[in-house]
Amino acid sequence: MWSLPLFRYTDVPPRVTENFILSGYRFPDYSLLQCMVSAFRPTNETGNFWTHFLPIFIFGFHFIEIFQWDGAPGPGEPFFYPAWNYFFGVFYLLLASSMAHLLNSMSLIIREICFFVDYGTISAYTVGSSLAYYYYIHPQAGIPKTGFGTLNVSQMQAESAQEPPSTPSSNSSFFPFHFHQFFDSLYIPCSCLVAIICVLTCCNTRQQWRKYRYAVRTLVFLLPFFISSTPIFYRLLSPSPYPPSSQTPSSYPSPTMASFFYRHCFWLVVSAAFNISKIPERLSPGRFDIWGHSHQWFHCCTFLSILDELHMIKVEIQALLLHPSLEMAPTMTTQLPGPTICSTFGLMLLLQGCIASIIIYFGWCAYQIYGPVQKSLKAH
Question: Which residue ranges does UniProt annotate as crossing the membrane (predicted)?
Answer without folding.
Answer: 49-69, 81-103, 115-136, 186-203, 215-237, 345-370
